[in-house]
Every structure is written in structure tokens, then in C-alpha cells.
Amino acid sequence: MKKMAIIATKGTLDMAYPPFILASTAAALGFEVQVFFTFYGLQLLLKDLSDVKISPLGNPAMPMSIPMPVMVQMLPGMETLATMMMKDKLKKKGVASLEELRALCLEADVKFVACQMTVDLFDFDKSDFIGNIEYGGAAMFLDFAGDTDICLYV
Amino acid sequence: MMHFNKELDARGLSCPLPILKTKKSLADMISGQVLRVVSTDSGAEKDLQAFARQTGNALLSSSAENGEYTFFVQKK
Known about the structure:
heterodimer; A: alpha/beta; globular; B: four-stranded mixed β-sheet; about 35% strand
């Protein structure tokens, strides 16, 4: 059986898609998959994903329907607005939500591992995370990753 | 028209949902049965070919008409 390991380090909406899309698809292709969530990637394991947002700020390549000066992007509420617009676009184009992709990963036996060190570092409450996840460290990840066909860092 | 045992309407869905739903649809079928998949995702053809290669299920045919892609997948 082929194997794939992914390290997910980002907690923004745009950067949340690649690990979930690749993990769920690899599982569908018959891979054994493990995703190691660390630093801001831990946000993707929260039961409530509503804090996973996108910002045009510092993201100059983000396609915008209306060009927006950086000074405007800085205004309060712009991040929420950009997130709403992006989610709306994703839905209209038939792209799965993060919640849906994450559920499909778990259903297909993708193993999710939360980095214990960063869980402690940021004082995350484990009861805020979804169930069916494990906690581990760098050695645990490498033990699996060393034997994989594909290993990605997102 | 090719014979099929089950149909998956994946129209309107984007990558990777057509593949994930194809996989799910095949799960409760028996070996040799044929699944018909209809998709509007223009990337689905290449993805279904790769899915077939990776999983060993046979892609019997694929065709495109008016922005709709139709595939027949035979379960391994």
C-alpha cells in the first residue's frame, strides 16, 4: 500500500484546502495517509472552523473582483468580508467545504495527528478539537513519514 | 448505451468531490459491476483516468458532450 504524509502548518482558509483535498483524495486512491497538524495548522482540527479565515492583506496574488488598496484591506471587518466572499465563491463553484472534506478524510481512515508541543504552546483545550485524533511529536511523525511515497509540507 | 448497475450524478461538483464520490459509490458494489458517473468538472477526465490506474478499477469509457462528462467505471 502506498503511503502519504502531510505536515499542515497553516490555519487560513486558502491554506487549509491543500492538505484536506490531497489527504481525502489519496485515501480514495488507496493510500494510507497521515496528516500532522502543527502551529497554526492546529486550527484545522477545531470542532468549530469559523475562525479559519482568509485575508487579502499580505496576500497580493489573491484574485479580487474589485481591486482593493492595502489601506482598505486593513479596515476592521475586511477579513470577515473577504472570508464570506471566498466561501460564497467556493460554494457556487461546487467546491466542498472544509468541514465536508475533513469529514471525508476521517471517514476514509486518514489519520490526524495534533502536535502536542504546539497544543501546549498555544494553550489549546483538547475538548475544542474533534475526536478521532492522536497527539504526538516530531519523532512520531518521522516514524511514519520515513516510510512514505509522498511527503508534503503545507 | 453501455449497461450499468449504478449511477452517480456528480454534476456541479468540483475537484476532488467527483473522485471521492466515485470511490464511495463503488464501495458497496460487487466486482464486475459498472458505475456510470456524470460530471461537469472539466478536470474529471484526467482525474478518473488516474483514479482507475491507482485503484485498479477499469475506466471502460469516457465521453464529453455539452460540458458534461460521462464515465463508465467497472469495479475491480
